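4.2 Preliminary Data

To establish feasibility before requesting continued support, the project team ran the inverse folding procedure on a target of 609 residues. The structure was first converted into the token representation described in Section 3, and no sequence information of any kind was made available to the design step. The complete token record follows.
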């Protein structure tokens, strides 16, 4: 609900964010232990592995011979309620590694032994009363009396490999949710139901936008004609904006030599996410590209550049491939082949601040057009100096991070730092948007990079005739088309704004006698760049209207004998979340004029009431 729609006395809504509530973390972590205790009471043969709190709840992985059933989940929840009501103290104990090993062997829990091997001192154990314990670092509540059984629910059972490794044992993962108050659980369930209605996988199939094929492979979407129109409309929008801002379009191959990615550092730092190498050896091998930047670097490097040419802005909707684990794939939001709205800017150091601000402006204007600018956060994704996963000197990193800080301070943007979220070659400014269900997604990103120009020995001729090193800016306002479209489907619940809808106008007829007129008008509209079609199903008018409603087509034009005689259309429009409304008869010429205007101005709806 937007502020303009908020009632004067708003009803209290419980939507706590996990990151905002330390109490909630403790509740969820302790509830996961209560669940594990309940499972082992009911199923003594079950062995526990790990059980963290997560966003909206918790999970625990179990090694159990027989699969958990729905009835099992009900029994586990009932046992959990009993444990909670006993008000058991949650006791932290610090033990030596040898003592922990002795206790684990005594209860014959081999997974715990493997976990113990990876733990650093001190080794801590958390007990529920004197009946159950597990290796854990916490945090937890002090007693189970702090848990509210009416604010806890068990949700699903899923498969999970031990340590996420498909070659190891397959476990059973029980997911649950836990909150501070029952009202929060009720609101969570309401939001979850709404999420199911908006699920882009469900709506994508119903609206005929994309499919997945087992024969093609998981994580590789196939775009239908309607879905391709949606993609193309988004691409064309951004391409127009880029051309206005001096970007130069390029196209690069889908594969490249291993040596290219060794030079960039991706082979060393990113190898596990690349698809397997093609070729007998690394010297002659090729890989599917997982990123576009090394290719754009080669275009820049193909000739000696002058300071007069800079900045050079190379842009590409480039499809990249990353070998995501099958268990991590999810509709369009996590795929193996996706298209990035990638661009790489090669700038002189003194141009960096100005160009960075221009990129941020482009990202913000893009979010505004897509109606995703109402609630976003800017994350300064910096390196963690304690991690050994970055390339380049401290000096280069400090200069890049300072450039990003200067930009957000100049713009007065609300921001926070995400230490450890940087790319391995440079820091980023990431735009985290909230969708209609209050979920967070990273979309636009802009990165400052001193390292790839160094690794590829990039130069330009400065005004004084010397050779100098440019700075690179990596940027992607959409992030990836696949993820963006998945988010937009759920954001709009399939009711796309008029300018973005794959089919903008459906012309329906009172009788088959008006079909030739409907086809003629549809063809005329298409000649003016309006995505229109005539209903040729032969169904009766009420069914034609219902079908158009079901397909969420924003404008219906009803034609009968009177419309044919007067060269008019009876317009019926729909808007997201609203009932359809009749505009009445309007001339074909005026209808086309208003429809074209709405498309050119990227309006959400068309025609006045």
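Position-by-position output of the design step:
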């Amino acid at each position: 609900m937007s502020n303009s729609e908020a009632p004067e006395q708003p009803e209290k809504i419980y939507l706590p964010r996990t990151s905002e509530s330390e109490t909630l973390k403790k509740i969820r972590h302790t509830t996961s232990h209560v669940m594990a205790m309940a499972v082992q009471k009911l199923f003594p043969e079950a062995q526990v592995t790990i059980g963290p709190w997560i966003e909206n709840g918790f999970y625990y992985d179990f090694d159990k011979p027989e699969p958990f059933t729905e009835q099992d989940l009900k029994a586990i929840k009932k046992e959990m309620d009993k444990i909670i009501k006993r008000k058991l103290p949650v006791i932290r104990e610090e033990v030596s590694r040898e003592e922990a090993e002795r206790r684990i062997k005594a209860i014959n829990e081999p997974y715990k032994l493997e976990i113990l091997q990876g733990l650093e001192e001190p080794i801590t154990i958390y007990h529920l009363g004197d009946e159950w314990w597990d290796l854990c670092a916490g945090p937890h509540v002090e007693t189970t009396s702090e848990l509210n059984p009416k604010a806890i629910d068990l949700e699903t059972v899923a498969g999970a490999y031990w340590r996420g490794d498909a070659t190891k044992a397959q476990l059973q993962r029980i997911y649950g949710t836990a909150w501070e108050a029952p009202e929060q659980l009720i609101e969570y369930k309401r939001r979850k139901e709404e999420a199911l209605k908006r699920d882009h996988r469900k709506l994508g199939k119903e609206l005929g936008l994309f499919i997945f094929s087992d024969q093609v492979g998981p994580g590789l979407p196939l775009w239908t004609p309607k879905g391709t129109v949606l993609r193309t409309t988004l691409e064309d929008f951004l391409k127009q904006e880029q051309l206005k801002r001096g970007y130069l379009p390029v196209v690069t191959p889908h594969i490249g030599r291993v040596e290219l990615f060794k030079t960039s550092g991706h082979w060393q730092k990113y190898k596990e996410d690349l698809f397997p190498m093609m070729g007998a050896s690394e010297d002659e091998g090729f890989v599917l590209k997982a990123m576009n930047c090394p290719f754009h670097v080669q275009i820049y490097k193909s000739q000696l550049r002058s300071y007069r040419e800079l900045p050079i802005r190379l842009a590409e909707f480039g499809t990249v491939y990353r070998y995501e684990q099958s268990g991590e794939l999810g509709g369009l939001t996590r795929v193996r082949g996706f298209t990035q709205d990638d661009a790489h800017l090669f700038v002189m150091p003194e141009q960096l601040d100005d160009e960075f601000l221009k990129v941020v402006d482009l990202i913000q204007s893009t979010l505004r057009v897509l109606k995703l600018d109402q609630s976003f956060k800017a994350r300064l994704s910096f390196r963690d100096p304690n991690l050994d996963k970055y390339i380049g000197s401290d000096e280069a990193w400090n200069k890049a991070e300072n450039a990003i800080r200067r930009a957000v301070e100049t713009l007065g943007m609300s921001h926070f730092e995400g230490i450890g979220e940087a790319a391995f070659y440079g820091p980023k400014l990431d735009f985290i948007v909230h969708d209609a269900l209050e979920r967070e997604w990273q979309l636009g990103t802009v990165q400052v990079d001193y390292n790839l120009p160094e690794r590829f020995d990039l130069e330009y001729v400065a005004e004084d005739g010397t050779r100098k090193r440019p700075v690179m800016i990596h940027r992607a306002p959409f992030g990836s088309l696949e993820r963006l479209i998945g988010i937009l489907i759920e954001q709009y619940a399939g009711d796309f704004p008029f300018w973005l809808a794959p089919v903008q106008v459906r012309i329906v007829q009172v009788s088959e006698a008006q079909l030739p007129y409907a086809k003629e008008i549809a063809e005329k509209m298409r000649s003016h760049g309006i995505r229109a079609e005539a209903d040729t199903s032969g169904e009766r008018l009420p069914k034609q209207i219902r079908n158009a409603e079901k397909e969420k087509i924003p404008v219906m034009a009803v034609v009968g004998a009177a419309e044919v005689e007067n060269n008019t259309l009876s317009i019926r429009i729909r808007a997201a979340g609203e009932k359809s409304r009749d505009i009445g008869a309007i001339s074909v010429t005026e209808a086309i004029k208003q429809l074209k205007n709405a498309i050119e101005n990227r309006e959400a709806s068309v025609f006045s009431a």
